[in-house]
Amino acid sequence: MLVIVGHATMAFLAPDGSPSPTLWQAALDGLGAVLNTVRMPAFFVLSGAVAAHALAHGDDASFLRDRVVRLGLPLCTVLVLVNPIEVALRIMHGGLLGRWQQEPLTLPPIPVPAPGTGMQHLWYLSALLALTMMAPWLVPMVRGWLVRAGARRASVAAILVVAAPLAGVVLVRLGWRLTPHLGVLTRWQLVDPGAIAGGLGFFVTGIVLAIDDSPLRWLVSHRRLLYAIVAAGACAVLVLDPWGPAAERLPREFVAALVALPMFAMLLVGAARVGRFAPMLARYAAASYTTYLLHHVVVVATAVGAITLLGVTPLAFVLVLLTGLAVPLLLHERLVVGSAGLRFLLNGEALDASGDRISVNQT
Asked: For residue 117, what pLDDT band results from cuts at 50, 70 and 90?
């Protein structure tokens, strides 16, 4: 949902990063900047925690086989069957799509007449797949550090959850240096060394928290400090340039590294207070993988239609946002859940007749 909100704002922002012409667009710009800074670090933290938990309850080989299918198959499916539709829309109607014009394009294996290349939103899945392959080595290493810390384990855990994201930001520069030397892998951004390096620190933070969650519990128990850190981080993001060239975004990346854990704690605090919205959020949780994979083309297609009919207006933005939230959810519930083939292609899993998940080995 955070990703959809952030992507819905992009069609209504100036393509060259210039100041927004109206107050409501300036508000969207600020919202998009904050979400753009915190959402992916939070997801990498969560992914690291999930990987550590999975490895603690199974062997390395089964974990790797499962993740290759679970992450790799949906990535390939959407890259080949869905992304070309989005690319075609953006080539034909790019002038309507605001900041989407700055986003790189890919139409494998055919080069397209657009600046740059890329996997669109699938870059995260590609980077996560690479980090997941490292998990059987990373998890024992982090666990060893914490075990050797003995009585100082909580302190070491606190140091790691701050130092690991900062180290990841530093490693991004190494990733940029590797990029020109990986040929077609980086030319089509099938592998993004910078994204992998940046995500590594947050992924390790998640592993630390899965083994020792004392830093997270401490933050959640000190709410005023937590809110102050998050507010200061958000203000820093708004002051820095979140949309400029990669080299100019490093200060913002350091901010993201520093506030990643507090932002993650804020998400947990918010999740504990959903109350009457819990059933709807449970539906989104069940459909989250499908929603992530399919929302991009829905948002772009709706933005083209809404801006054509209504112009760059708040009503058009609301229409894009609601459609981006609703359509992928309905596609999951009406089509994917009832089709073993679609579950396998889009979620990397198969179900037996009773509805229980079948392991990749059984499949």
From this structure: very low
